Amino acid sequence: AQSVTQLGSHVSVSEGALVLLRCNYSSSVPPYLFWYVQYPNQGLQLLLKYTTGATLVKGINGFEAEFKKSETSFHLTKPSAHMSDAAEYFCAVTNDYKLSFGAGTTVTVRA
Amino acid sequence: EPEVTQTPSHQVTQMGQEVILRCVPISNHLYFYWYRQILGQKVEFLVSFYNNEISEKSEIFDDQFSVERPDGSNFTLKIRSTKLEDSAMYFCASVGAGGSGELFFGEGSRLTVL
Fold first, then answer.
1. What is the pLDDT of residues A46-84, one digit of tens each?
2. B residues 70-99 near A, CB within 8 Å?
3. What number of C-beta contacts closer than 8 Å exist between A and B?
4. pLDDT digits (tens, 9 = 90+) for B89-105
5. C-alpha distance across the termini of chain A, in Å
6. Residue A6: pLDDT above 90?
7. DSSP character string of B17-66
8. What angle do CA B63, B65, B70 make, to 5 degrees?
9. Is B42 on the interface with A (CB under 8 A)?
10. Partner residue opposite B101 with nearest CB, options A97, A101, A103
11. B62 inside 8 A of chain A by CB
């Protein structure tokens, strides 16, 4: 069985500030981990993914995430928030071709 | 770039009516999925489909739901008799064999049941 917990359903940051979205997972086997972004009234877009190899992965729009096996975490960060980062972010885990999503974190960016 | 396409983008229906949501997965993909997102809630797994049969389904996917791959390209989700609580965004996804298991999602079909 696999599951994902996203800490914080809503994060508010100032433009230019650090964005940190927390994700912890549980999986009985080494997982593949993903972050997806959903802009209002749109579908799910892949931000980045971890499969194997380097534990720090870089994605689109300046986002990156670090896989920490000892902490079972895959937190998403961006050094400097932009207004266009306002969206819903979903962490997801899979190890059998079935994706399990976290509850999502809504990010708002203040000018 | 190959993409998953879904139709319709928005459908409004009366409670009790049948609805068919259509998806065209990426052409060389082998695994197909339907997910559902009720407004303001998390994305929920409904069903996975491989080798022309359901490989896994969630408790949400009851007898009112069915999936079909009627030809080599389309993958459909049918809701036999819609209920108010079926109102949601329905996402189709596909993934190829091997690789990272990354699911490629369509833009979604918004279903509104009145």
1. 899 998 888 999 999 999 999 999 999 999 999 999 999
2. 91, 93, 95
3. 52
4. 999 999 877 656 678 88
5. 41
6. yes
7. --EEEEEE--TT--EEEEEEE-TTS-EEEEEEEETTEEEEE-TT--TTEE
8. 120
9. yes
10. A97
11. no
